[in-house]
Design a protein that fits this description.
By secondary structure, the protein is of the alpha+beta class. It has a domain of 118 residues. The protein has 14 helices and 16 strands. Strands 1, 2, 3, 4, 5, 6, 7, 8, 9, 11, 12, 13, 15 and 16 form a 14-stranded mixed beta sheet that branches. A two-stranded antiparallel sheet has the order 10-14. A hairpin with a 4-residue loop joins strand 1 and strand 2. Helix 9 packs across helix 13, helix 12 packs across helix 13 and helix 13 crosses helix 14. It is elongated.
Amino acid sequence: MLKFLMFLTLLACSSFFVTDAFSLEVEVLKESDRVIETLGWLKPGNIAFQEQIQLIIDQVKSKNKISIMIASTDNEDIRLPSELESKIFDPKIISIIYTNQFNCAQGTAEYACVIVGIDRAGLGDNISTIKENARIIADQVLDDGFLGVSPDFYSVFISTGVSSVSPDAGYGFDDKGIAKVTYTVKKHETFKLLNAFSPVLVNLDIINAGGFFNTVEKLSNHYFADFTLTYMPREQETLRVLSVSLLCSNKSSHFQTPDCLSQNIDEQIGNGNISPLEFLQLENISRSEIFSKEFLPLNSVIQVIIYSGPDLQVNAVNSHIIKKLDNLGDVQKAGWFFTSKSGQMIDGRYIFGTESSVSKDSLSFSIGSYTGDDTEIKENEGGGCLIATSAFGTELSPQVQFLREIRDNTVLQTESGSAFMAGFNQFYYSFSPTIADYERENLVFKESVKLVLTPLLISLTLLQYAEIDSESEMLGYGIGIILLNIGIYFVAPAALVIIIKKRINLKN
């Protein structure tokens, strides 16, 4: 039957070993084809390839992290290194990781690492025996090298999973632990590793299909970005995850990463508006073209996790809220699904549904101090003000917020207003992305747009003082505002041109 939770299962695995995130646990009903057809739902396809963007904002530890991952269980998507292709993996092997992450070999920052994770259950009754047996298993995996290099043994570390006390002290130790056998190799910059390994390991169709992979390439050019390649063998398949991450600290220290995200994040937290694509300097993001021919709602996910000292809550989203994940009907439409929408941790995932892309504004959501009430999250659907956002620099600007408030709190509160916005959006979004792009490229044009928008903003302030309680009043005020702007933008300039021509003719 339908494997609806395949991607969430992958996230649960890859998050634990790669990005230290939280898995999503839901029960999903398995509908028959007849039920799907009767209810008018789209039937999902079955592609192993997945892509994910994850943003972790940790105000408690003053660290922020962006990770972009592509993952698959299909060897045609992300291949095993040639040295591992013919190996039969010991069932105790949990993961094989290659990474240039800072300090991956604890105590030195000079090397990249190959880390073999091994289930320590049954490896022995004392630390030395466990370490010895763990290394024997790991050596067998790497005896032919890895990715064309011969790693040098560095150390074995035993993680208990039940205690923060050092295992060498003999405390908090049981069969739940993992033995991490670390080897060192020469360290290279992330963009070099991505450029070297992608053509060899990643299917060319995935590379050419764009999507989140384009963003992986962009992030890899950051000097402090990390590259991680993970293989997790299972009985019948191996999960493969390629990821690029950027970890930034708000506190200056010789051993900590730079303050590369904190200013932007602090500004967003302070304003109560979270814009995930702002950190990647993107106006919109598209899914991989691999997914364009089938309904694959969970194959692309954008996740945001916020850890906070004071309790927070999600107030509104600029798209749609998915309140539950019980059946296919819940993911037919793109939107945010929050596993935790209030408290000291906010955890949300944007699911694309049938959409192929999402804009920066549509992906944004607002947060605020926790009020103690389990209030519904408000949906500010209808798209973003692309031209105004580009003109004034950010969707957080007072001018853009004003336009959004007029749209959501006044126009969309009536049927006639909603009908007008539906038609207007279809017209507006046919040309606004092109104008917005040109604004970002041409400063003079951007300033000109600001001047052009000023009369519109002034005229719309009239709606703030109008009491609109009926459809007829909405139509009346709406037509009045439209006529006023026609006068400002067309009649007045035309009249001015006529007057000037008359004066010129009189002089001649």
